[in-house]
Amino acid sequence: MNKALIKQLIEKRTNEEGMIETGIEGVKLFKITKPLSCSPAVYEPTIVAILSGCKEAILDGKRYVYDNNQYMCCSISMPVEAGTPTASPENPLLGVYISLDTKVMTELAIEMETEIGVIRKLKSGPLPPGFALSHWDDEFTTALLRLLELGDNPTDTSVLGSGRLRELYYAVLKGEAGASTIRAFGVGNEIARAIEYLTSNLNKPVNIEDMASKIGMSRAVLHRKFKQATTMSPIQFVKSMRLNTAAMKIAGGMNVNSAAMDVGYVSSSQFSREFKRMYGQSPKQWTHSMQVPEGILS
Fold it and tell me: Strand order in 131-135's β-sheet?
């Protein structure tokens, strides 16, 4: 019943195509009525909850489809290809996009680790992936409904918004995606810190030894744990992040050479070769075939 109420709230507030602000920082509603093929994107730490239709994401060659049975939780920045292949005016994609506030998530994750000893459980097994799909449970559904109910009253939104967002974060940490989010934001979040370092320095040469040293790991341990969390090696991850970020810049109107230089390529010919190898088209061919509205696929 709560999920149906959430859908009604979203339908009421999304009269237009695209992203709609809610008045709560980091929380947006979206409506998409046109099918979009999978296109390069970068998922930032985010929760995406679908109420109608479905979204598709491809991570390192593996395809994930999620709808109103599972919400998506990305706890670390990830290079993906994303799309809305079945959206139509008759069956629009409706949902909620929620950015994860690093400070609040870290506070909650560490409090939970301290309170229930999650740290000991996580350290005994492999790292969970940074991209997780979680079934809606009662706590998540109730917390999301309470958050979105604030939208009709600006005063309530201003006074209660941050508290109810924290309540939703807590529900995520307790749910099926909890292991990956606690690992990313709690104690022992070395891989999340490594990814933050990489994504902040895409336009600079990558030195894996230096990065391993910064987070207190050997190169071999970093490589193993990085692949457990992201399915990619650090070098593969950087290449995907660079190409996806450049593709998004090109789709936004930036010329190919500028986009290549912005993400650290010094040779436009090398960029074009690697781009075509990954996406099957040259950057110029891709520019003509993929025009994606800003924010829709993230």
Answer: 18-21, 27-32, 93-99, 46-52, 70-74, 131-135
